[in-house]
Design brief:
Elements lengths: L1 H8 L7 H8 L8 H13 L3 E6 L7 H21 L3 E5 L10 H17 L4 E3 L7 H13 L5 E6 L5 H4 L6 E4 L22 H13 L9 E4 L4 H9 L4 E7 L4 H10 L1 H16 L4
Parallel strand pairs: 1-2, 1-7, 2-3, 3-4, 4-5, 6-7
């Protein structure tokens, strides 16, 4: 069945968008900021922190990129006004990285300044390998200019990552889910995503044995992935932060989430067959 699921992953771009949307809905708060804020309140109520992300990687104009930046200002204002425990994460392509370097920098800096003024924090997500150098360049530039309320993500499966670490501040390490060639990425790398139980157990042993204070680390998870395990970590006194994406630009993000978990592709096949056999059911 696993081989079939992996084969189906390759067919995902041909799957009707409504089917993809329905199956990926567990990973996305919804199309509006109110949807995201509602999810964050629920997470806060059970002791979890959050990080809100505005989906919008496929922007094609400067106006769209500025609009995404504007949405982030709205997010920061609402987090502040409602007293929510949430930061934000940004993808630089959504802020115009592929359109114009200065446009992206201006959008990013305005968001970072807004977050700092509110005592909040911006995490710059890492995207596919074509953006790595430019992402790190912008991050280093902001830090060098004294912007301390911003961090960056590095992907453990990239071969360059060990060389990128020195000199960086406030780094979040993730496995990485973009499909990259073997020449630049460890394609057979063991999964180190926070949801992996072996790695969770190992991390718990490390922080315990080292006597690391619980306010000096946190576990981070994706919305809709192992929420019960997150509840257990919170109950045990650990900090847990959940990534909460929202927005109308959901399709590319959804494909990556589904491609990351081939088992879900099997559900897509079953759903599609069911729609054909029972179109009015």
């Amino acid at each position: 069945m696993a081989l079939l699921d992996r084969a189906l992953v390759r067919l995902l771009p041909a799957v009707p968008k409504p089917v993809v949307q329905r199956l990926s809905s567990r990973y996305i708060a919804g199309p509006t900021l109110d949807d995201a804020l509602s999810v964050v309140r629920e997470l806060n109520d059970v002791g979890k922190l959050a990080t809100i992300d505005v989906l919008g990687e496929e922007v094609s104009s400067a106006d769209e990129a500025r609009a995404i930046a504007g949405q982030y200002h709205d997010v920061l204002a609402q987090i502040d006004d409602q007293g929510l425990r949430s930061g934000i994460s940004v993808k630089l392509t959504a802020l115009g990285l592929e359109l114009d370097h200065e446009l992206c920098r201006d959008n990013l800096e305005s968001v970072v300044r807004d977050a700092a003024a509110r005592g909040n924090f911006v995490r710059i997500d890492m995207e596919d390998s074509s953006t790595t150098e430019r992402t790190l360049q912008l991050y280093r530039t902001l830090r060098a200019e004294g912007h301390t309320y911003v961090g960056v993500v590095l992907q453990a499966y990239m071969r360059r990552t060990l060389d990128d670490v020195p000199g960086l501040d406030d780094v979040r390490l993730c496995k990485g889910i973009y499909v990259e060639p073997h020449s630049i990425a460890f394609r057979d790398y063991v999964a180190i995503a926070t949801h992996d139980e072996y790695l969770l157990d190992s991390a718990l042993r490390v922080v315990s044995d080292a006597g690391i204070p619980r306010d000096r680390y946190e576990f981070q998870m994706l919305l809709g992935v192992r929420p019960e395990r997150g509840d257990e970590l919170v109950a045990a006194g650990h900090r847990v932060r959940v990534y909460v994406p929202y927005g109308t630009h959901w399709y590319e993000y959804s494909l990556r989430r589904l491609q990351e978990n081939p088992k879900i592709a099997g559900y897509i096949a079953a759903d599609t067959v069911g729609r054909v056999l029972h179109p009015f059911g």
